[in-house]
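Handout, page 2. Input:
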Amino acid sequence: MSGKGKVVCVTGASGYIASWLVKLLLEHGYTVKATVRNLNNPNKVAHLLALEGAKERLHLFEANLLEEQSFDPAIDGCECVFHTASPVSLTASKEELVDPALKGTLNVLRSCAKASSAKRVVITSSMATIMVTGKPVSPDVIMDETWCSDPKHCEETKQWYALSKTLAEEAAQRFTKENGIELVTLHPGLVIGPILHPTLSLSSEAIFNIIKEGKEAMPNGIYRFVDVRDVALAHIKAFENPSASGRYCLVEVVTYSHVALNIVHKLFPSLPIPDKGKQELPFVAPYQVSRERAEALGVSLTPLEISLKDTVESFREHNLLSF
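Output:
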């Protein structure tokens, strides 16, 4: 993979996935035009400016999802736009999530339509747009890219994050079709792995809270784990592979939090682990997620044990855990 001479844009560049994406793009020789909400916030930009190659090939821009045309300068002259910026929360209200996700996606796409250089858009979507169907699941069920969350079911069950991502994806599909822009959407589960930024994202905080306190982010304790480095790499593959199109699920394994805790306990015996992480409970995955399209894209998903090991070590390096 060589991005030498290629210019791309990453929206929401200070985020967990986006930071890794910027890092990998710079490593592959790309010139990156990256947007953040506030250029004066060191928590949002210092870790990006410290990346290898940033001095020569990283250009930061301020942009706001709800401000029309604010993405124009960053997107102008880019071959591909990686749209990762979207609010991520399981507790925010419908209004706080739906408007920024939906209007923000359309604002970015309008800037892409203006810039004749932008041929392809890769959007960071979520498994939340795949799995909220209301259909029953069982260990032999395999979710894949043909599954679509039902906005009505999202409304009824007040799953506003899933609703925001589903509506944004539907709008993106319509807009790109009407404007002749190639669209690829990536659908990661709960993203874990080393952190680059100084503060925890929702997904890294979710695994941190499970390890630290046994506190669940998901009400049923079921997690769809995937490594942040695989998700970042999938974005680049989605641009570089001319035949990449449509949706890609990115989940290494579907499992329960107690299984993840058990692995962490075995890897780091000196780490004080909540009791449920020390139980030898039987494990049958509640359902599965297909890896077929992810593997066809050229992404080999990192085993959960490695992701968890690197996550915990990263927390220790950032002084978030001591043991």
